[in-house]
Write a structure and sequence with these properties.
It contains three helices and no strands. The chain is mostly helical and about 70 residues long. The protein is elongated and about 50 Å long.
């Protein structure tokens, strides 16, 4: 299983963790921090689609992960 698939499945199971339907096996384990890079050819003429994608990534990967929220 690719690491991104595992992360998507973890995010999808947050509600089950909070409801007690799932139990953490290794509660002390933390996923390593990762860098997400967006590469594009020029800052001068960024299309609206590229700008929207970058804004989405910034929003999606900032803050506290849903499984760590209380």
């Amino acid at each position: 299983m690719a690491p991104t698939n595992a992360l998507v499945r973890l995010v999808a199971s947050v509600a089950d963790l909070r409801a007690g339907r799932l139990v953490q096996v290794l509660p002390e384990y933390r996923l390593p921090d990762i860098d997400v890079l967006a590469l594009y050819p020029s800052r001068r003429h960024v299309s609206a689609k590229v700008r929207a994608a970058i804004d989405f990534l910034v929003n999606a990967f900032s803050g506290v992960p849903p499984w760590d929220e209380t």
